[in-house]
Design brief:
23 helices; alpha/beta; five-stranded parallel beta sheet; binds iron/sulfur cluster; 17% strand; binds flavin mononucleotide
Length: 682
């Protein structure tokens, strides 16, 4: 066996620990915890990355060391002894695959809410509110400091007892750096003012931790070395802190962050989403490495292997974090090693993963349905033990392409029929927003996989029942998608245009525009963004409590930015009732769900509406009586991941089911999950 010369595949020695290559996943809380514990879902998630060849997985994100650091997004309870065996299981499993396991520990300080966990008061260096989590923290007292320093040390000891390879402390936007930053430390005692004073708390923590875990255990710190904030930690002070930590002998690596995170708009600069610059802080992290001559880790939208390789080859980093990249594809390293780089499923930066943890769910990848579902959905699809089926998939949108891919991986003979001349369905529409163009990666990756698997796509076939039957299938998947529908109006249905008309460029925006969105997802907001950026006067009207409720905090930022910069008026709690023509203008009548008496009018040139999609299911209903199962699906069996299709019609010659928006208006992930969860059962 020849040894690879790929810089990414070279081992790295950190103290006594040899990391087998240079690729890591930085800590991120996927909100898979159960009662604050990393149980099976958590373990399988990290195990998959270990199987995929990663050298180091930094578990948790912000595992909390104290009870008065209430969990803000499913954080693990590092303050509890109960966590030790759960973490030991993860460490043991990952170690079997040669993957090192560490964990990020923190006290969230002001970056949480008081009405969570044990309802204990939220605290910070000074009583400065954090807008993102909305608590007004109390100023930390002497007895809090004593207690929390002890909590850090005890938590570190627990991690050591669990057999982890090391820990890192979180010091950007949390309690530790709350002391460092002039933006959040207004103290006049020995913990405020000079840099020595502001470093006193973290010094106390590190001293206590070292005393608890000894000199050999690996301890790092993930820190903002420049808050990029006029009132925050300057680059000079930040790099000075990094230098002092490196020289202190108390830490073994620095994981470098640039920016601050007290508001979603700022968070997207630290964790850029699609349409934002790639690897924006890589050079800065390299500068810190040069200034400190110390091991430096870093992650921020280094989503592709070429950039990661450059980061290591050029000596900017010692370990490169590809965190969301591994949420999209946990087998990156294995594919590099096997010369299959082209098969890596790309992270398209949609940040559905991160947005979901604040929307009450676990992290899910927009186009990898297996992530976070490792217990039931495989990342590597095995061949079917059953008979080889002849499958016809109708529709080459994301759901249809995924169904074709999964069925072909299972070994079935698959053909795809697509009504238009191009694959991609609604993704092509979404990607017309220049900022979201990367979404096309979802389509391109699948097209490349289908080519590899030898699956033909027949374009420009608006399939009727005969077209499908002519292929003599024994399995038919309807993935025909949906079409924009109007909301119910008392009058004027014929006077409005849809968000799709605007996005597709079929209708040019003419101001003033009233855009009514009672769906609350990307399509309405994309139309609004395109209208606003065309310089057209716009009012967005929503019947909801806040606009675009289906869009999470990170994805909200670019829309809100476009609206703020273009003076877009946003009106909530308001419903579009009717539209009428008046001369050259349209008059929109608005009402309220809260009062029958409320009424207002807007005189505009154009009314654009967004009300989700209506399924294009004619073909499904045409084929339904001819199918073996009459279209019926046993959902209980589907949930158990057992064959959900039972025969009901002895005359039927094929099994039939529909997926994605051909069933009802949903999103990309739902369609891809449908395709996967059915596909692997055949
Ligand atoms: C779902 C999710 C949760 C995260 N939670 C944390 C966290 O608790 N602590 C932390 O330091 N970083 C957290 N991050 C940030 C990641 O560690 C990483 O810095 C970020 O995703 C940028 O790297 P990437 O572009 O390689 O994904 C989180 C990221 C994601 C996607
Ligand atoms: S949801 Fe988007 S950003 Fe997150 S891992 Fe998947 S592709 Fe990447």
């Amino acid at each position: 066996m020849t040894l690879s010369k790929d810089p990414l595949l070279q081992p790295y020695r950190l103290k006594h620990l040899t990391l087998k290559n240079r690729i890591m996943s930085t800590s991120h809380e996927p909100a898979y915890s159960e009662d604050g514990m990393p149980k099976d879902r958590y373990r399988l998630y990290h195990l998959e990355k270990a199987k995929g060849g990663m050298a180091l997985t930094m578990t948790a994100g912000s595992a909390i060391v104290s009870e008065d650091s209430p969990p803000a997004f499913g954080n693990l309870y590092a303050y509890s002894d109960e966590i030790v065996p759960w973490l030991r299981n993860i460490a043991d499993d990952c170690h079997e695959h040669g993957c090192a396991v560490m964990i990020q520990l923190t006290h969230l300080g002001r970056r949480t809410g008081w009405n969570k966990g044990d309802w204990l008061p939220v605290l910070s260096a000074s009583p400065v509110r954090e807008p993102a989590h909305r608590a007004f923290p109390k100023e930390i007292e002497d007895w809090d400091i004593e207690r929390i320093v002890g909590d850090y040390a005890a938590a570190a000891q627990r991690m050591q007892a669990a057999g982890l390879d090391g820990i890192e402390f979180e010091a950007y936007g949390h309690l530790m750096d709350g002391f460092w930053s002039p933006a959040t430390n207004r103290r006049e005692d020995e913990f405020g003012g000079s840099l020595d004073n502001r470093l006193r708390f973290s010094d106390m923590v590190l001293d206590a931790v070292r005393k608890a875990v000894g000199p050999d255990f690996i301890v790092g710190i993930r820190m903002a070395a420049d808050e990029d904030w006029d009132i925050g930690l300057s680059r000079e002070e930040g790099v000075e802190i990094a230098r002092r930590l490196a020289d202190s002998g108390k830490v073994d690596f620095l994981n470098i962050i640039r920016g601050h995170i007290d508001h979603d708009a700022h968070l997207t600069k630290v964790i850029p989403i699609q349409g934002m610059a790639a690897s924006p802080h890589l050079d800065f992290a390299g500068d810190v490495r040069a200034a400190t001559k110390f091991p430096v880790f870093h992650a921020a939208r280094i989503a592709d292997v070429a950039t990661a390789r450059h980061a290591i080859a050029e000596g900017k980093l010692d370990m490169v974090g590809m965190t969301r990249a591994h949420i999209a594809d946990p087998h990156i390293v294995r594919k590099i090693e096997e010369g299959r780089e082209a098969q890596i499923r790309p992270c398209v930066g949609a940040t559905y993963c991160l947005d979901r943890i604040y929307e009450g769910g676990g992290a899910l990848c927009i186009h990898n349905a297996a992530t976070g579902r490792e217990a039931t959905i495989p990342h590597v699809i095995s061949k079917s033990p059953g008979p080889r089926r002849k499958a016809v998939v109708v529709g080459a949108g994301p759901s249809g392409l995924e169904a074709a891919r999964v069925l072909a991986e299972r070994g079935h003979a698959v053909e795809v029929l697509e009504a238009t001349g191009e694959a991609g369905g609604q993704i092509l529409l979404a990607a017309r927003n220049p900022r979201r163009r990367e979404l096309v990666g979802i389509v391109d990756w699948r097209l490349a996989e289908l080519e590899r698997l030898g699956v033909p796509i027949h374009y420009n076939v608006f399939a009727g029942g005969d077209d499908v039957l002519a292929l003599d299938p024994d399995l038919v998947v309807i993935a025909t998608g949906g079409i924009a529908q109007n909301p119910e109006l008392e009058a004027g249905d014929d006077l409005v245009v849809s968000s799709w008309d605007i996005i597709a460029g079929a209708v040019k925006p003419e101001g003033p525009v009233l855009l009514y969105d009672d769906n609350g997802a990307h399509s309405g907001m994309t139309a609004a963004e395109l209208i606003a950026k065309a310089g057209v006067e716009l009012e967005v009207v929503s019947p909801e409590r806040f606009f675009a409720p289906e869009i999470g905090g990170m994805n909200h930022v670019p829309y809100a930015k476009a609206f703020a910069e273009r003076n877009v008026r946003v009106t909530i709690n308001t419903r579009l009732k009717a539209v009428r023509r008046d001369g050259n203008a349209l008059v929109a009548t608005l009402g309220s769900d809260f009062s029958a008496d409320a009424s207002a009018e807007r005189r505009v040139a154009q009314v654009v509406v967004e009300h989700g999609t209506m399924p294009m299911a004619d073909l499904y209903f045409e084929l339904k009586p001819l199918s073996r199962n009459l279209g019926a699906v046993d959902y209980k069996a589907l949930i158990r991941q057992e064959n959900p299709i039972q025969p009901r019609n002895p005359e039927g010659t094929f099994d039939l089911f529909r997926i994605g928006d051909a069933v009802h208006s949903r999103n990309i992930h739902a369609g891809i999950y449908d395709a996967m969860r059915y596909g692997v059962l055949f």
